[in-house]
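Here is an idea for our session: we take a single protein and study its fold together. To get us started, please write out a protein record for me. Once you have written the record down, we can walk along the chain together.
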Amino acid sequence: MQFHYALVDDLISRDEFERRVQERIEGSGGLLDEDAAALLVVGDCGRQHLRVGDIRPGPSLLSFFGRVLSVGEPTVFTRQGGEEGLRASLLLGDATGRVEVVLWDDSAEATAEIEVNEVLEVIGRLSPRGGPSVSALALRKSRVFIDCPMGTDRRCTDPAGTGDLTVRILAVDEPKGFTRRDGSAGMRVSALIGDATGTARLVCWDPALLDGYSPGETVRIGGARTVTRGRGTEFSLDEKGTVTPAGETVEVPVSTAAGVRAGETVSLCGRIVAAGAPKSFMRRDGGRSWVRNLDFADDSGTVRLVLWGEHALASLAPGDEITVHHARAKNKRSGGIEISVGTESHLVLPRAECEDITFEGTVVLSALGPTIDNGVEAFLLACDLLPGIEVRVEGKRTGTRITPCTVETVEISRAPLERRLDALLLRLSNAEKNL
């Protein structure tokens, strides 16, 4: 009885609850047992057990029945104050969905007595850390029948539970360092993954798990946890997780330009029909970044792409075929849809060789951005330089863009300028002949 009273202890006293339960039992002529009568009293108070698919954020306790689909091993963690705790998770489900149930400390040890296929009655609160996760305050085994598929696989756009993910790797970023709460240093690597439902970000706190895997490969990921952020689902994988090759093909859906709707996270494949120049701006943290507008088209129509950060400096020109993954669609202020390609997105560029280059010329502004021109050749610059200065740059050339490693100002002399002028006049003359 105490189990069910926890659902209404903010509404009536314990004595009143027991009195009502006894009235229900007597009114049924003894057909109801104590548990069944307690459930009816909870319902009389306006509280009821939810279906898993109806679990939503809220300030009060929630209760539901769920069939055990998987049982996780208890793991030790360190709280912010340095104290150690114990955590374990269950994957429960019914015909409407699945939910992760988290047990803490002494309760986490109860997983040793829980078996797959059993039905549990749970009282808890929706976890504030995001994702469909319930922190259990109380649970017990139940004789209630729950119809639920036993498969535990998850999808990129279905963050429920703790099942495995079978996905295609779309991109793997360079490893980055971070500082743990205890002050020690660590490394993490982010990746973009996809399956038939869409795309998601994966943060791997043990970069070795992704060693040897490349974009295009299909893998099975076990032990990933879910973090739901404002931009969608993100999966977190620590050293207890696994990444193994998957012997199957996974296709990631591609949207059409005309079919995109605001609020969607999409992948697109098509060509650039118009390209604006990258524009620099100051971020809120004082750093410099870039933004660039493109008109993008496929067989269905045209849509505006907005490239942010390093994406805006990519070597792109009208006619280039590109693919975009994990981009966010939103309404333009002027009406219509635009696709934001941000830091969490992945841009697949036309295949181009990257080579070392040393190039000297004058910095000029072109329609596509800062350009270095020697009168014969011209390349876009992946940096901001004052127009009119003569520089020598050393860096990497990809297509028509140079990403400088070093920039050196050089003195402008008469002879090179005259050669550039002669070359320009020759080009103009040849152009007039071809008209």
The radius of gyration is 30 Å. The first helix runs from residue 2 to 5.
